[in-house]
User: Fold these one by one.
Assistant:
Number 1:
Amino acid sequence: MERDETSPPLLPIISPDKRGDAENLEKERKPRDLTMNWLEHPIFLFGDVVKGFGRGSRQLGIPTANFPESVVKSLPKNFNTGIYFGLAQVPSYSAEVFSMVMSCGWNPFYKNEKLSAETHIIHTFPNEFYGVELRVLIAGYIRPEWNFKHVKHLIKAIKDDIAFAEKTICTKDMTKWKRMFFEN
Ligand code: ADP
Ligand code: RBF
Ligand code: MG
């Protein structure tokens, strides 16, 4: 069955009603057990970075490297849209594997009409890198996408996602996954 933004989430998670209130988001995150967020099977995606609307850097100060539609369509059919964490590599830049946070969804704040898969790599790059290969390993789920009353709440939520991802990724030895997915 085709899933869209109206489909209920498959995973039991945070109430989608707590929207736009950074304090509520904070409260909801705290009691959660970090081990429950890992996917049973990580998902590997790769493709050339394409242009989006340019909002990530300009409006949020958080650039996201966008995958082309063909990659978005290759996601498993039962994939829950939402915010994920994992690993990322831009081979033409460096063999290094970085932590990442990723939005696979409809960007309700911007009312996008197409599903997008966008990765914020937790690393400061000296330049943009459009048109080159990006590899990601989606390792865990953070939350569903939310709508927000104000862009500052979206920015706060993304910053919290980054902190959550960094903290969570440290709890697992990913050497094997790095070897399996990112060394060639
Ligand atoms: P777009 O809407 O075209 O995706 P963004 O404002 O989201 O534009 O910026 C994304 C671009 O910024 C990426 O395609 C990449 O070239 C560059 N970039 C620089 N640093 C990063 C980073 N840490 N993570 C992801 N992309 C980055
Ligand atoms: N967009 C939303 O509309 N709601 C969200 O809850 C949301 N969370 C995000 C979390 C992360 C970690 C990232 C990287 C992006 C998120 N976005 C969200 C997408 C954001 O709107 C998008 O990256 C910008 O519009 C730039 O394309
Ligand atoms: Mg982007």
Number 2:
Amino acid sequence: MRNRDARIGVVGATGAVGPVAVELLRQRGYTNVRAFASARSAGKTVAGLQVEEATPDALGAGDLDVCLFSVGTALSRELVPRVVEGGAVAVDKSSAFRLTDGVPLVVPEVNGRRAAEHDGIVANPNCCTIPLTMVLKPLHEAAGLARVRVSTYQSRSGAGVERMEELRATPPAEAHLDMDWDFDGVDFDEEAKLRAETRKILELPDLPLSVTCVRVPVLIGHSEAVWIETEDQLSPDDATRVLRQADGLRVEPVPRPRDAVGIDDVLVGRVREDETVANGLVLFLTCDNLRKGAALNAVQIAELVLERRAVAA
Ligand code: 2RA
């Protein structure tokens, strides 16, 4: 049962993800929600909440049960430990702690028990990792994953509100693809994150996984084309049946990002045989990156934590 009196903080409330988190918490009946952001945004209003400044003292004061962070990695490193010292569980969306040993990296439909076992920091995965693992996990249980290749089509909102405004101001004929992540000469850090996080969540540290990430001129909705090789044969029809039964997925003949905006489910479809390899499947998925790719996943993690705390009390 949901504890609607839980004291919940949302840090980064004026970014692309924060307002979605505040709105989701409101829709789910939580009444004790506080919004935090930088000094520059303090005093503004987000979904009816007055924004407080996210100082270490305010966040560490001990009057929060759970705190959802959607801020940059450097700020998360500074503020998340303070919230935890104050006794709250921090659900952190940055990449600061995702690969840290002992910090669970959680997609509730895939490995929710990890959040239910843990106090302290729970990491919220990358917005492409979340839908990818939701699709891969049931296929792995059905036929064993042997190899995965992914190409992403990531929307502008993944890069923040300013990049959304920039796209709104761009004439359609001048909008371009981009690759706007940190580049080490071989990989973009986004590609490395997607590989490492998927392996950690699925507990398949040696899974062969090749990733190419691309930013597309779409406002909201991250999509992925995924080529999968399985250990055992799995026909497209059987794979579709497996995906239909999985939590949080909706099978659509042609999943498009515009159909995913504002909904909770990950859309998956175009499931077909990859005839170039043995036991090969190809599929396409898309989801609202601000919602299931970020805010909704964080809220679901918070609910697992709160449920466990309520049972323990
Ligand atoms: C992106 N993964 O879309 C990120 C979201 N911060 O670039």
